[in-house]
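Incident log, structure service

09:12 report received: a user says their structure output differs between two submissions of the same chain.
09:20 pulled the input from the user's history:
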Amino acid sequence: MDIQDKQLQRLIGLTLRSGVLTAIVIGVLGGMMFIRSHYSDAVSFHTFLGEHSLFASPSKTVQEALHPDAHTTENRGLAVAQIGIICLLLTPIIRVALSIVGFAMERDGIYVLITTIVLATLTCSMLLH
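09:34 re-ran on a clean worker, output below:
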């Protein structure tokens, strides 16, 4: 293993650690914001009431977290927590992208191809719903 491989492995490890820690911090912050605005709500578990999702796409989620509508400011914490989940989902995707770089540096075409297919599958599964 040469110096470039070790540096790439360190970068991948740092990416995984920082991605998970970022997701935890954002998720806890969003959860605290949500609880602060909903702590006195009465909850009924007798009937299930489905609701439309304010967070149908990552862009809508970020928009809601940064610029909530006047009538949906109570959902800002939920949007922030959802961004934490998005960060958690992006962490392995970034790891796979870095692996493609590593395989390309090693000039290992078959692994570049396989890992690119994995990256495309992960990306499509996250973007398509």
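09:41 both user submissions now match this output. Likely a transient worker issue. Closing.
09:42 reviewer note: The two ends are 40 Å apart (CA to CA). Residues 36 and 77 are 9 Å apart (CA to CA).
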